[in-house]
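Dear support,

Our group has been running a series of protein-ligand predictions, and this particular one with pyridoxal-5'-phosphate is the one our PI (initials K.S.) wants archived with full inputs and outputs. We had some confusion internally about which version of the output was final, so please treat the block below as the authoritative record. The input we submitted was:
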Amino acid sequence: MIYLDANATTPPDPAVIEAMLPFLSQHYGNASSSHAAGRHARRAVENARKQVATLIGADESEIIFTSGATESINSVLLSARHTCPDRSLLIISATEHPATLECAERWQAQGGQVKVIPVHQTGLLDLEALKTALIPGETALVSMLWANNETGVIQPMTEIAALAHSAGALVHADAVQMLGKLSVDVRDAGVDFLSLSGHKMHTPKGIGALFVSHHAPFQPMIIGGGQEKERRSGTENVPGIVALGKAAELAMISHIDMQPLRDALEQQLLAALPELEIHSQSAPRLPNTSSIHFPGVDAAALLIRLDQKGLACSGGSACHTASLHPSHVLEAMGYDARHAASTLRFSLSRLNTEAEIPQAAQAIIAAVHHLRAQWDPSVVVTMA
Ligand code: PLP
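Confirmed final output from the archive:
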């Protein structure tokens, strides 16, 4: 299989698995226990906290381990509603992940106000609209995707955070797709909260983290045993946490640039199929992501055909569902449902190889020709 669906989930890195394995078997202590086994687990958790903090330029005391970005995002949005009771406004963008969109719906259902900032056709946020929407004294939180999972568009987070702070609002960055691909520094960006998921950076699923700045008010969503300094209760997922720490360390030292492979894929496809449209090419984009419109081709059929040929990619919709319902991201960029229904996303990881690119391009080109031949009414099939 050629796996080009890293924005949905990445293949676990063998070094990450090797680091976590002993904590699935012999080092099974509860990190809250005071005996030697517990202390061993605790040391591993705190070491991982340091590794994650280093990756994003935070202090280790600002890192909370969670089950993944969905939990981190839910925690931030619920917390802001409670810690800023006299500020009822939440601001998000039109291209958020469903985790944020659904939390925004709940915010509204609970009596809060939500403003959704549009994006340009490039996928970049309309900063003028953000400036207009920010009401000083009323805005509790600005929560924005840093890099989009469908198109790879990178939003100007530093600028967004500065604008939000000038209105006295807290800032949350969904950095799930940034980490492991580009460097992230919470101080440079000036964000108060940041969410990440391990499985987008080569750990197994079910582990993530939340950065909460020292200065930001925070109320836990999950209460109970008081773990994570009472900010996220529940016995720590020690193997997952060790995996996330190792993945963070590898992300720091791995200098594999995915962009040459992504660009080569795009060039090879365009050379054979010049009518293709690559979304957001003029915007800053993640080096691994390519969202491509195949005019006149049913993306669902193409996805199935490619799957049969051993190539894994994703529909124009997001990583959260297997369905190909029209992408709200492409819709926000001004494309219609028909356009979205002819769009596929290819996303690479640092574990893809150069040799896979021409193979993938050939498979995609052949599948497009195959589907067009099937559906093109000008192709006359005669029977002998
Ligand atoms: N935010 C973005 C941008 C994502 O791509 C994802 C992935 O699904 C999430 C949030 C949610 O992450 P998870 O499903 O790992 O909780």
